[in-house]
């Protein structure tokens, strides 16, 4: 940790200290070959003056911002048995190649855009650099060291760098677009959910639907010729209460003309089967329960807009209604 006025001196000191502990050795390919990767992570934090809330605009406030800067020196890949001068160097080269391969798999999986699993945990290197590779505002510059006298190694290095370049062009250009699309979809979902809940509640002129009644409608009203079915029924009688419900049939001025079936009793035929229908009481009065022949009732279907909102709007963000 250091202050701003000491940052340059302190960072140089840390870099020299880290470089002094790094493993290097002479190989066939390089007199000072790196036998390990080096990763330097600088965590920068600073305060930024911002305007306060609307009621306290005259008082300044500050917010803390942060970023991370990674300085990474990757050890070069080595062909087994061609560069090592000792068994220890052969083992070191094996570990170097394994970590570089893991980094290549991570970059390749992200650059393809079709991966379901990104193998960050395959090596310590990829786990340390996870934020630098996939951060929403990450910026990366790779410098590849090549040598014209070694065309095979040069071509391999350039292919590796090109794969990393594909990652930047694929994810960086679409990141902001995807974020915008997600926000737009979320606003649409919230709007649909609000409209659906409002439609479920209904108003003084419409039915208050439920999710259960939308699955299979149980709301009904007397048919226009309901009385004639009472005249031919052996047990049921047409009453003033039945007449009041028939008088408001088709008029959505209040909910009292629409009932829902609460019980059904079987009969010998369709004309003799009867249903218990409960109507909502007017002006806070108790519900009215009446019996009807099944053939004297017609079902009331939910509005098509309500069914559409049920199919499109998710339930609390966890799935469809």
Fold blueprint:
Elements: H1 7-20, E1 24-25, E2 33-34, E3 38-51, E4 60-73, H2 87-112, H3 124-128, H4 130-134, H5 151-201, H6 211-215, E5 219-222, H7 226-231, H8 240-247, E6 259-265, E7 274-279, E8 288-293, E9 297-299, H9 304-312
Antiparallel strand pairs: 1-2, 3-4, 5-6, 5-9, 6-7, 7-8
Would you kindly provide a brief summary of this structure?
The chain has helices at 7-20, 87-112, 124-128, 130-134, 151-201, 211-215, 226-231, 240-247, 304-312; strands at residues 24-25, 33-34, 38-51, 60-73, 219-222, 259-265, 274-279, 288-293, 297-299.
What does it look like?
Keywords: ATP-binding, Microtubule, Motor protein, Nucleotide-binding. Pfam families: Kinesin. Residues 1-167 form the Kinesin motor domain. One of its GO terms (molecular function) is microtubule binding. It comes from Effrenium voratum. With 321 residues, the chain is of the alpha+beta class. It is built from 9 helices and 9 strands. The chain has helices at residues 7-20, 87-112, 124-128, 130-134, 151-201, 211-215, 226-231, 240-247, 304-312; strands spanning 24-25, 33-34, 38-51, 60-73, 219-222, 259-265, 274-279, 288-293, 297-299. The strands form 3 sheets. The protein has a 5-stranded antiparallel sheet with strand order 8-7-6-5-9. It has a two-stranded antiparallel ribbon with strand order 1-2. Strand 6 (259-265) and strand 7 form a beta hairpin. Helix 2 (87-112) packs parallel to helix 5 (151-201) and helix 5 packs antiparallel against helix 9. The two termini are 53 Å apart.
């Amino acid at each position: 940790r250091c202050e701003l006025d000491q940052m340059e001196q302190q960072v140089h000191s840390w870099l020299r200290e880290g470089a002094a502990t790094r493993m290097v050795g002479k190989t066939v390919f390089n007199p000072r070959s790196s036998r390990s990767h080096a990763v330097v992570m600088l965590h920068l934090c600073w305060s930024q003056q911002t305007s306060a809330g609307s009621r306290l605009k005259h008082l300044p406030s500050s917010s803390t911002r942060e970023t991370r800067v990674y300085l990474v020196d990757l050890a070069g890949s080595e062909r087994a048995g061609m560069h090592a001068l000792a068994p220890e160097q052969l083992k070191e080269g094996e570990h170097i190649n394994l970590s570089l391969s893991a980094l290549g798999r991570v970059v390749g999986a992200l650059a393809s855009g079709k991966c379901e699993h990104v193998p960050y945990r395959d090596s310590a290197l990829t786990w340390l650099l996870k934020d630098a590779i996939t951060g929403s505002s990450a910026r990366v510059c790779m410098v590849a060291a090549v040598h014209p006298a070694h065309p095979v190694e040069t071509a391999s290095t350039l292919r590796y760098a090109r794969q990393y370049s594909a990652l930047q062009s694929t994810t960086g250009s679409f990141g902001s677009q995807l974020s915008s699309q997600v926000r737009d979809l979320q606003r649409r979902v919230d709007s649909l959910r609000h409209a659906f809940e409002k439609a479920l509640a209904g108003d003084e002129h419409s039915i208050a639907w439920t999710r259960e009644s939308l699955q299979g409608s149980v709301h009904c009203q007397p048919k226009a010729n309901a009385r004639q079915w009472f005249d031919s029924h052996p047990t049921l009688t047409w009453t003033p209460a039945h007449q009041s419900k028939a008088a408001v049939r088709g008029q959505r001025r209040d909910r009292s003309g629409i009932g829902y079936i609460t019980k059904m009793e079987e009969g010998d035929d369709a004309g003799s089967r009867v249903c218990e229908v409960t109507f909502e009481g007017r002006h806070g009065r108790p519900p009215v329960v009446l019996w009807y022949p099944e053939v004297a009732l017609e079902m009331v279907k939910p509005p098509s807009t309500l069914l559409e909102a049920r199919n499109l709007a998710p339930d609390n963000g966890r799935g469809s209604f």
